[in-house]
Amino acid sequence: MPPQDLIINDRPVHLAVRDHGGTGAPVLLLHGLGGTLLHWDTVAPLLTSAHRVVAMDLRGHGLSGDGPWEWEAVLDDVQAVIDHLGLDTPLLVGHSLGGMVAVRWALRHPDGPGIVNLDGLRSAETAPRHYAGIGQDERNALLAELKAVFDAQAEAMARPLPEEHAAMYPQRALRTTDEGLFVRPDAALARQIRYDPYFQDSVAAVADIRCPALFVLATRDLPGLPGRVGELMPALRAGIRRDLLPLTADRPHLRVLELDASHNMVAEQPERIAQAVLDHRTETTGQGA
Fold first, then answer.
1. φ and ψ at 54, to 5 degrees?
2. Model pTM score
3. Most CB contacts within 10 A, which of 21, 48, 67, 122?
């Protein structure tokens, strides 16, 4: 059967869901900032032979409704999808922002089946101390350039999207108003998330996770980064490893996998991502479903 799309609208923020079907233990997929549930359309079919697979649009994204980015409210959104579809206790798989949601979910559900976090531990625009292997002057200069890039993106998001650029986005990622087309999330929500301390750094919270968790880390830069911004990314990755690996060293329920991919790993390596999810479930339960 083809995937089934539905809207859960019996709550303050309605939620768009894609049910990919499948049999076995449930898996719920969470996309990153600016993404939609379409992010998972290549990975989901690779999981349905062993799992019931569902993806959702996070609030403010895709076809889901608008609401402030409050982490507990977002977790309530996740719970609403689980309850509506009778998913019981799913494995949460989140990319980027979705991975940060998954970490918070793990803290709320210490006895659950766990999470898979796909490069979702720190935003690029994190505190200076979170970068490693780079001189202070060089780091600060690159951070200033990165901030200028993000500021320019934020300004563009607040303006209607030129029609010639609309084809670059899936229709699901756009909203139509009397003023024109705008990308989702809107500029206000994107700014709120951008400066949220937990979005900037979720590594410290890993120490409090009690359920099984797999952290998949990128090893390459995103292609096409503007200016010298790409020179900052190795320092970001080095800082994540420096701070994450000691937290997992004596906690066998926390595992780390380094993947030959960039932050866009779901699109670049869908087979490897699916296999990591399947292997994680097998290793933590002793069975694949």
1. -135, 140
2. 0.96
3. 122
